Amino acid sequence: MAVPLPELEPFIDRLKVISDRYGKVYDVDRGGDWHLLKVQEEMGELTQAYLAMTGRSRRDAEGARHDVAMEMADVICMVMLMARAEGIDLNAAITEKWLKWEEVMRQETQTA
Q: Are 96 and 67 in contact (CB under 8 A)?
C-alpha cells in the first residue's frame, strides 16, 4: 500500500523547527509529557472557540469560525509534533487504523 501522506515527514520537520524556536525564545522545557499537555491545552481552546461559534458561550461569535480553524491547526500540528517526539510513524498508523477500511469497502462493493 502507498504511503498515505508522502509529504508528512518533511512537513513535521518544518513544524519541529518552529516548535524549537518557540522553546528557545520562551525558555520552555518541552520534554516529557509537554506535547501531550499542549494537545490538551489546544483542545480546550478549540472547544472554547467552537462553543462561541455555535452560540453556546458568552463569548462573542464574531470571528469564532476563524478561531476554530486556528485552534484546529494547533491541535493537528501538536499531535504531529507529539508523534515525532514519541517516535511514532503517523503514516503507518493511519494506514493500519484508517486505510485498512478501503479494502473492506472495496470487498463490500464487489459482493453487493
A: no
Rounded distance between C-alpha atoms, residue 40 and residue 42, angstroms: 5
Is the per-residue pLDDT at 11 higher than 80? yes
User: Is residue 40 in a domain?
Assistant: yes
What integer is the mean pLDDT of 24-35? 96
Class of residue 101 by CB neighbours under 10 A (exposed 0-12, middle 13-18, buried 19+): exposed
**Helices marked H in 1-112:** 8-26, 34-53, 64-85, 90-94, 100-111
All three cell numbers of 9, joined, read 515527514
% the chain with pLDDT above 70:
99
Range of the domain at 87: 8-15+29-111
Quick check: is 83 in a domain?
Answer: yes
77: CATH: 1.10.287
Q: Determine the pLDDT at residue 112.
A: 78
Residue 101 lies in a domain: yes
